[in-house]
Here is the input.
Amino acid sequence: MANVISDETIEYVGILSKLKLNDEEKERAKKDLEEMLDYIDQLGELDTEGVEPMSHVHPQVNRFREDVVTNGDMREDILANAPEERDGAFVVPRTFD
Amino acid sequence: MELKELTAVELGEKIAAKEVKVREALDSVFAEIDAKESEIHSYITLDRERAYERADRLQQLIDSGECKSPLAGVPVAIKDNMCTKGLLTSCASKILGNFVPTYTATAVERLEAAGAVIVGKTNMDEFAMGSTTETSYYGVTRNPRDTGRVPGGSSGGSAAAVAANECFYALGSDTGGSIRQPAGYCGVVGIKPTYGTVSRYGLIAYGSSLDQIGPLAKDVRDAAAVLEAISAYDEKDSTSLDRKDTSFTAALKEDVKGLRIGIPADYFGEGLDPEVASAVKAAAKALQDAGAVVEEFPLAHVKYAIPAYYTIADAEASSNLERFDGIKYGYRTEDYTDLHDMYKKTRSEGFGTEVKRRIMLGSFVLSSGYYDAYYLKALKVKALIRKAFDEAFAKYDLIIGPVAPTTAPKLGESLSDPMKMYLGDIYTISANLAGIPGLSIPCGKDENGLPIGMQIFGDCFKEDLIFRAAYTYEKIRGKF
Here is the structure.
């Protein structure tokens, strides 16, 4: 069955992805998504009833450690990468008035 | 023999024996770089000045006997998705175009402790998403064996740098074949180890459950020596394994007698170039003649690996790449109205087409209403693929197949049809889903003189058997 991605869906995907798409990009994205989903739908041919989903190949366990600081003060170096900084903090656009 | 033609281990021996100075090794590398880089473009960033400073410091440590590692003084290239303190790490993306890490990836740190000299950071597909190194924001890399062709990807810069003698070995990363496929296209050796063998700390994540760092090298011995140097438990990576069996160079023996080798018949079907098929089969025959027991067998679920992979990898990528928001580091758009507008514009301008395509697919398959049908389904298929390998390794010590369906494609041929590019990953992708190790080694050339790669898989933790078979084959094959 061919997948059809609606305008609403691509709008929603844009929000989830935090991407701003122009009309041309939206059309392209719809086509790409439809094509990929048609392809991924092949997985439906496999009977996975009762199969446990495998997120990691090795058993994963929580590894606890003491909460101690091991790195030194790297504030200057870290802030040097910031697009905008002031008084030792990252500057972001105003989020409320 | 010219210095540049030595392998990393041979060069290390000569440096240790005081026959070659570390500076001379660097001179050789930079002479190749100066002669070839304008055409090949293996590197995004060169670190010439600091490399020479380090060479001088290392020379003292070697002379005084404080640094005795087999790789001491040997120049290395690092893929640009591994953080290097004080050295630009762009991930081949505009969004990280000015990112200077405050720390170094564990794998790179381990090489530095072993006396490696970093030459620079190699080109790659943006965020390791691609199979040709053409999605890099910083321009394409050309295959040194034929400059009209791609080097493969995503570790294409690392593979090209090794093939062009612009370094003595390199680190790459492999999420779906990104070490093994460019190694195959460029005629060098590459290995993706068992998941968890090399720490991912400081590797800019693409698909965290699939990513592994590994070497690209001139021969099997170099690959074993480098992997041995970078394999270690790391408490900074919660998926890192505490392995005791990482003395890979000890496995380099010319002996495959009695090794059971399976050839998946499903890897030799439609879409495989006949020249690639016959070269890989001839290599398997050579191992059979040397005493291995080789037979064909049916491997289940081969065609489901690609759709499962792109679902899982893109889902993880969409989550991993959320952090690039224009606030703490990297590119920020010039012009915006509010916070969310800034996020969206920054990311839309900062990411390339392929990265955006994967983030969108990943966001979609994780979204409410589609999660079970796509993401969870893919994780179940992953379990079935793992089971198929478990069954295969109950019968065989190793599995042999091609690296890619064809030799290196021409530049510009792949990007227009992403689906076709994805299909090229068919033989490499399963190893990442199953977590097993896979090595790529040159096994011949096609009618155009382009390298053909053979892949050797082992079960988890069986790198030793892989290295033994690869080393034996390399001796039979002779110099490539």
Summary: The longest strand of chain A covers residues 85-86. Residues 23-40 of chain A form the longest helix (18 residues). Chain A has a mean pLDDT of 92. The helical segments of chain A are 7-17, 23-40, 75-80.
